[in-house]
Amino acid sequence: MEIEKDSVRFQRANFVVSDLAESYRFYCGVLGLTVTFEKESKSDSYSYDVFEIDKTHALRFAILSTASQQRVMALTEVRESRPEEEALPRRSAIVLDVPDIDNIVLGARGLGLKVYDESVLETHDGRSGREVGIVDVDGNLVVIYHI
Fold this sequence. Notes:
alpha+beta
């Protein structure tokens, strides 16, 4: 019996950030992701084109993993250039199922990040849980939840 493959395989999310070390404080220090790969991007990196980055800026690229999910997220650092405030409404977010919302909220607040008021999460199949939005230092939205 032949196993049918998905026509699309989700590889990872990628956020543009201004400082990898500062971003690691949240993504690794608070959320618990680990850096599994980091490199200086080449001057002909495709990231310049697709993110419309000025080619005078040097780029670094990092891949983050969880204990059970390898290479689930990437960060592209645009040195010396904090991204402009994103127009509202926000156009993207990552959504993470986390075991301990309270400690993550505490850690995010400790870093001075914007933390939205908690909301009750109602799933499509009738379960309920908690969800909280957090904005990283570069304006990227992370929604954490737990059911």
